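Ticket #731: bound-state structure for zinc ion.
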Amino acid sequence: MAYSFIQIEREKSRFIFVLIAILIAIYFFTSWTVWFFVKNYYRYRFYSEAQTGLYIPTLIETGIVFLIALSAALLHFYISTADMLVRSFEVLGAKPLDLNYSKHRMLRNIIDEVSIAMGGVSINGCVVNSASCNAFTISNFSGFAYIGVTEGLLSKLNRSQLEAVIGHEAAHIVRGDTQIVTTACSVFGIYEGLMVGIRESVLRVRSSAALLGVFIYLILSIVHILNKIIVSSISKQKEFRADAVAVKLTRDPLALAQSLYIISKRWHGENTKVVGLSSLFIVSPVGSSLSGFSTHPPIEERIGILLNMAHADKSALESMVNNLKPEIKAARRDFKQMAKKSKLLKNHESWFAFKDQSWQGPFLFVELASLGWLKPDHLIRRHGAIQAKPAYEDSRLMPLFRPHEDQLHSRFSCPYCYHGLDATKYEGADVYKCYLCKGRLLTRDELNKVLIREDRDFSQDIISQAELALAEKKERFKRIREIKTPLVINCPNCFRKMRRKLFSHYAPVEVDECGWCASIWLDYDELEIIQSIYDRLPNKDQIIY
Amino acid sequence: MLGGILIFLGVLVFLVVIWVIGSYNGVITLRNSVDNAWAQIDVQLTRRHDLIPNLVKTAKGYLTHEKETLENVIKARTQATQATAVKDKQAAENFLTSTLRSLFAVVERYPDLKANQSMLKLHEEITSTENRIAFARQFYNDETMRHNTLIQQFPVNLIASSFNFSNKELFEIEDTSHKEVPEVNL
Ligand SMILES: [Zn+2]
Ligand SMILES: [Zn+2]
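RESOLUTION: The complex was predicted; output attached.
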């Protein structure tokens, strides 16, 4: 990259001086005005006969006020930037990557790739557990930088599109935009929260004290507008430049155009909490009311430039993004046919096992259990299947290899079979599963995570069960209200009674939920049924969180 | 008068020395950057070599009828690890890339293997490594280009020739873009 790092450093420190100067000016103006009013008020109250006319603070008083403003501004700057990374993390709801989950591993890999393309800048990754589509960067003064991606975006983009987005974000980090914007947001973010608080309390109090509130509110509004002007002046151009760097790295303008297009068509996550941090995102998560102050250039303009680079036009882009669908559909059709076939074989299931250089069998499940020599890494082949795989990968054979102590020491036990539950992963979420009745235990949080991710297909059986549930919605709600004893099983986590209920208004599936620890017990297949119902909701993004 | 000339000459010599030191350091910084970039390529190539045994092990059980493809991959890997000269290395790595590509093309035809968890993991790792190699090469070539342009331009070329700085070689791989690695549709 032909960046001059000295130039960037210079620009950064200049910006920080400007920021501190603005803070000093604000504090100075405010405290001077307050001092002016207080002094005149007291003179009017107590010395009204002796003196008349307005009192203008003396030069010395002004100097003292300035010193107070100076220290207040420096203190403000120090406090608001001291742990800005940690606080931004909290406000944004960012979480570290879970490398057991394939998509998170891919994100980690892509970030590493882009970092190599930039000559080895160190960048960390994080995710936000939200169904919205967005990405952001944050960093602190010591150059510790994070790229964050929402789960929603992670599930919508393919590898090259994600690479383009990460390239864009990494450009912000390398060029120092991230540091500037994170600093500005941390310094002024305090105000944004304060403004909301004051606005609410002023409306509630309605007394003479409210006058002071209105005054402070006015000042804060000026700060607010100042912040918007600063951030938008540094942001708008930088979005174009970051797009250009991303293209230079990945040599794929079309992928970036596609991802911007996909993001623009989706929900960006209107979240009032991140108002102050909106300019950190690739696409503003806040609907802009003042278009002149919007932190991002219009997305159509950015897409237009990228399409120009790729010598393509918008209709090509739209058809490309939509064209991906038939492929997925075809893949799903294949999968369904395979599922059907395997169902036919299910009744008389038997296996061949590879031992002493030859295939032996076929064995029924019971026979396999009594063989004695079968180990998890033996190759096995299901009767009727062509491909072989190690035995540990066939979930139906799992009970054969489980030592009994394992079940005794398991954290939870099945409320129906009293067997130990296995800690497993399902679409990256922590799920405890009973291998006998196939029931599953998970928390609401983990369940939401599963519902956001939509990269799987369901068998015809699941789909028809889901359709049945939706058709019977009314009756089911009526039935559940009439249940006499809704407390049937004990929570495997905290041993309190779980309540039998319908999962949600959208998915009328009977589940058991613990009102104490929010654990949910799902019987065989129920998780998939709920998932398939949620996948079909047009606006599931907004419903889940 | 003479004093004036002497001072003038002294200042001139001083400026020239400053300029020489500055340009020398500039070239050295770039050269180090180029060397680092080269080391990064090596790291990533090794990473790819390390992934292949696992890949072969995972695929073996399924690809009983595709022995040849697997053997090609193993052969290419051995060649790549043994090559020392830059030219040989490039040729061997190109060969390895193409054998890996044909292996993944074969894997496409085996849905069970394609959906196998460790295969998915390996496929992602290898795709990522190929991208890393491509990016490291891209960065290396960019830096080399900057380095070579700098030491060829007047007046830096005077310094370059007196300190024996020579052009760095570009890393050429027949330009098949890294995106051509087949993608697994999940
Ligand atoms: Zn059970
Ligand atoms: Zn509980």
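RESOLUTION NOTES: The longest strand of chain A covers residues 358-364.
TICKET STATUS: resolved
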